[in-house]
């Protein structure tokens, strides 16, 4: 096997590349850090090895101590789903007598997400006003 094809196979074994934004998110929220579980992969560099994530058990070839792409991606997905969930108003008919309390509770959830930086104040105000102004 030539060096060239070894390198292609090693590339296929690597985890997907982390973007800077995804890596920053992973560091901030505690994504797994790859632990060496196999031999060094000097074909990639002096600090490359078979790695495994202690959080999600993903395995890949990467730099020792690199963040787990799959943990970072899961954290990004959770934030996105949280955004979508909180920006969706309570599913209630206009005449439902529980609606006023449901809207108050939703407003509090929106504020928590604004304070956490997951949605903007403008996004929260837009969806809340739209729901308050709903006529059918
Ligand atoms: Zn992981």
Can you walk me through this structure?
- The protein is mainly α and 136 residues long.
- It folds into 2 domains: 3-74, no CATH class; 87-132, no CATH class.
- The protein is built from 5 helices and 3 strands; from the N terminus they run ααβββααα.
- The protein has helices at 3-13, 20-29, 69-86, 99-115, 121-132; strands spanning 35-40, 48-52, 59-63.
- It has a 3-stranded antiparallel β-sheet with strand order 1-2-3, covered by helices on one side.
- A hairpin with a 7-residue loop joins strand 1 (35-40) and strand 2 (48-52).
- Helix 2 packs across helix 3 (69-86) and helix 4 runs antiparallel to helix 5 (121-132).
- The model is unreliable at 1-12 (pLDDT under 50).
* Helix-strand topology string: HHEEEHHH
Spatial shape = rod-shaped
Give every kind of bound small molecule, once each. Answer: zinc ion
| Total helical segments | 5
- Largest sheet geometry: 3 strands, antiparallel
Category by helix and strand content: mainly alpha
Q: Give me the Rg, rounded.
A: 22 Å
Q: How many domain modules?
A: 2
End-to-end span in angstroms? 69 Å
Low-confidence stretches: 1-12
Name the helicity range. 40-55%
What's the average pLDDT? Answer: 87
Count the strands?
3
Tell me the fraction of residues in β-strands, as a range.
5-15%
Looking across the biggest beta sheet, what order are the strands in? 1-2-3
């Amino acid at each position: 096997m030539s060096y060239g094809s070894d390198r292609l196979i090693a590339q296929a074994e690597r985890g997907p590349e982390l973007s800077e934004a995804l890596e920053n998110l992973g560091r901030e929220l505690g994504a797994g850090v790859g632990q060496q579980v196999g031999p060094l992969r000097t074909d990639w560099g002096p600090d490359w090895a078979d790695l495994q994530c202690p959080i999600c058990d993903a395995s890949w070839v990467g730099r020792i101590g690199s963040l787990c792409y799959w943990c970072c991606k899961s954290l990004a997905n959770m934030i996105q789903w949280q955004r979508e969930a909180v920006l969706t108003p309570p599913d209630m008919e206009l005449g439902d007598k529980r609606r006023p309390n449901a809207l108050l509770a939703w407003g509090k959830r929106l504020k928590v997400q604004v304070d956490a930086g997951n949605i903007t104040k403008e996004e929260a105000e837009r969806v809340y006003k739209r729901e308050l102004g709903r006529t059918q």
